[in-house]
Design goal:
Layout lengths: L26 E5 L6 E5 L12 E5 L1 E3 L3 E6 L5 E11 L2 E7 L9 E4 L4 E8 L5 E7 L3 H8 L14 H6 L7 E4 L11 H9 L3 E7 L22 E5 L1 H12 L4 E4 L1 H9 L11 E5 L14 E5 L6 H10 L1 H13 L10 E4 L1
Parallel strand pairs: 1-17, 3-12, 3-14, 4-11, 14-16
Antiparallel strand pairs: 1-2, 5-6, 5-8, 6-7, 7-10, 8-9, 9-10, 12-13, 13-15, 16-17
Helix pairs in contact: 6-7
């Protein structure tokens, strides 16, 4: 299977550069896998597609201000660092710019010296390993000195609004450098209404890493390797999930990251989904047999990307590519701050 089969042209003006004026004020495309029917509606009608007994699975990862701007020690040249993976309490793997000018032994200064780092090693795919030096709490410093790691297709600097809007309202577990964007649409009122309707809700965790934006550089889909991301399923979540599976209830996954965490968890006929955590590099592409989810809420994804390929695996490539063409014709907003799609 060729990656080019998942390509499409998107007019640049359809890439959402800002969130909608109000959270939840977005369009919703509904795709029925059995009938191939495609319906246009509004996210405020999302709850009409669920019923009492359904289980809604959310990814409660929290985005942290992973982007830092500073300068090389002893020089005025600007340096940008995107933290991608914590290796030890004070050591991080990161993407740095300009990468070619930053070598092991070089120092970087942030916030007039309140936070400093030394490059100690080279990592894979152009990454660097940084050892940080500071006083106090590292994440409190990040809150002051860092900024939201907006995706590269958002062509502007982060604003104060992004600190709130590039985060789900149910985010709890700090560790992501990208938001689980399907969850950005939910308001507290929507979740309360779903609960009152008898829709059960539970959270699991998958910390989204840099791999979510990583282009697929191979020609054949099957040869692509995902970067590892950390996930966790709590005892409470495992209990609720296993009960729903045993009872044959519908499980709605909010987002491709939630889907990957659910599908990554090991299973056995005796115990079902176990409690636990681990690292996953699961790449889901057409031909994959989904074990747990019955419906998927997602945003509109980049062409030739792993999230798009996952969605095609769930609903069929032809149906999804047709849905994307209709979304473009109807002027839907695409990507992180864009509109949503519900696949039933």
């Amino acid at each position: 299977m060729k990656v080019s089969e998942f390509d499409f042209h998107l007019p640049p003006e359809l890439i959402a550069q800002y969130p909608s004026p109000r959270r939840g004020d977005s369009r919703l495309m509904v795709v029925d896998r059995q009938s191939s029917k495609i319906t246009h509606t509004h996210f405020s009608y999302f709850l009409q597609f669920l019923q009492a007994g359904d289980l809604l699975i959310l990814n409660n990862t929290m985005v942290f201000p992973a982007r830092l701007r500073g300068h090389k020690e002893g020089k005025s040249g600007k340096v940008e660092v995107l933290l991608t993976k914590r290796l030890t309490p004070n050591q991080w793997e990161a993407l740095v710019r300009p990468g070619r000018k930053l070598r092991p032994g070089d120092g970087v200064i942030f916030g007039e010296g309140k936070l400093q780092a030394t490059i100690v090693d080279r990592g894979e795919r152009g990454k660097r390993v940084l050892q940080f030096h500071y006083r106090g709490d590292f994440f409190q410093l990040l809150e002051k000195l860092g900024s939201p790691p907006l995706p590269p297709y958002i062509k502007r600097a982060p604003t104060a609004e992004d600190h709130l809007r590039y985060q789900t309202i149910y985010a709890e577990e700090r560790g992501a450098i990208a938001a689980p964007t399907a969850g950005l649409h939910f308001t507290r009122q929507m979740l309360s209404s779903l609960e009152a309707q008898g829709v059960e809700q539970v959270s699991i965790t998958l910390h989204i890493g840099v791999g979510t934006f990583q282009p697929i550089e191979v020609e054949k889909v099957e040869e692509h390797k995902m970067e590892e991301e950390h996930y966790r399923i709590s005892p409470r979540a495992a209990t609720i999930l296993n009960r729903a599976l045993e009872e044959g209830r519908r499980i709605f996954a909010v987002g491709t990251t939630t889907t990957r965490a659910l599908e990554s968890a090991p299973s056995s006929t005796a115990e079902g989904i176990p409690t636990g955590e681990g690292w996953t590099n699961l790449f889901i592409y057409p031909g994959y047999q989904f074990k747990r989810i019955k419906a998927l809420l997602t945003n509109f994804h980049l062409p030739r990307s792993s999230p798009l390929i996952l969605v095609c695996a769930f609903a069929g490539r032809e149906l999804i590519m047709e849905a994307y063409q209709r979304a473009i014709a109807a002027r839907y907003r695409f990507y992180s701050y864009g509109d949503s799609m519900l696949i039933l």
